[in-house]
Amino acid sequence: MEGGNSPSLQLQQLPLATAAVSVQPHTDSFSYKENLIGALLAIFGHLVSSIALNLQKYSHIRLAGSKDPRAYFKTKTWWSGLLLLVLGELGVFSSYAFAPLSLIVPLGAVSVVASAIIGIIFIKEKWKPKEFLRRYVLSFVGCGLAVVGTYLLVTFGPNSHEKMTAENITRHLVSWPFLLYVLVEIIVFCLLLYFYKERNANYIVVILLLVALLGSMTVVTVKAVAGMILVSIQGNLQLDSPIFYIMLVCMIATAIYQATFLAQASQLYDSAQISSIGYIVSTTAAISAGATFYLDFTGEDVLHICMFALGCLIAFLGVFLITRNRKKPVPFEPYISMDAMPGMQNMHDKGIAVQPDLKASFSYGALENNDNMPEIYTPATLPIVQEQHGSKGVSAPPYRVLEHSKKE
Length: 408
Description:
Blueprint: H1 2-23, H2 28-64, H3 76-95, H4 101-104, H5 109-121, H6 129-155, H7 166-173, H8 176-197, H9 204-233, H10 242-268, H11 271-293, H12 302-324
Helix pairs in contact: 2-3, 2-5, 5-6, 5-12, 6-12, 8-9, 9-10, 9-11, 11-12
């Protein structure tokens, strides 16, 4: 009887074993651990990068305000900033190998918060407490909102983890959602490029949309390259696959063109506008690319998706408030216009931009522009000694004519 009942007992235990196996993928604790590692690496990288950029800026300012004849690349401060910058970028790069793309990209708000705090700490001007709070209240509110948004992003971020093998990346690359996304992105990119190049639509939104579309492809390839390197380090070699080098070339190419458009935008617009609008647009495009290529939000419930979207919106608002408080550069206003002097040669005709045109608005030693006072720009008249020649009825010329004879 016992021998006859043993098979039934074994059959009854099989569903329990399979149930235990189905619960075992409840390695959500490990996946959340990977999310935490990736988020901490991204936060560390952005913080170190902000410190590095401010160190390099400090080295430039220090050399400009001193009589030191050395170039900036010969100072220890600049090299320290460069090493920290490389370390920070490596931290951000490695974070893509652990956490989903949609979680890492919005954490770029940390660099904006760090730059704002560093700027407030190392500011040279002295303010009274009331003026200080009134001036930087937007920065404080923005920093608080960015921190809250970052907390929501880390807590409710997507929890999809997949081995970045060559087979998985190739399968995602030829999937129809990503192909449709790439087709739409190429069409939008070509239209924006046409209006930007041919129609001279030099709007900041147009340029930063071009940057965002390129950046979405950059982060997709960065995650693929970083993930394949991590899998290779763990023992499964992926560096001999052609898809690795295809992703590497696409990453470098899109990053170069992205930097080119950013440089053009920085020549036309203020850095505060570029930081706020660029962060919002680039983050939105990158999250869309991660959702279509890596399927970051597959299996996530509605609550987590809504809280993640709320965290993104709060981070966007925080970055906007921080950058809105920055000072706009004031262009230099001359005090003397050489063109307004009678008899002075205009140097603009020779291509030497020494003085601005008279049409430009400038003030002469005043705190306000005197554009409504045209007499400032007219040359002053001097008293002239007149001599009468001929009859009294004939008007004399407004200048003295001195005639010298040969005897004199």
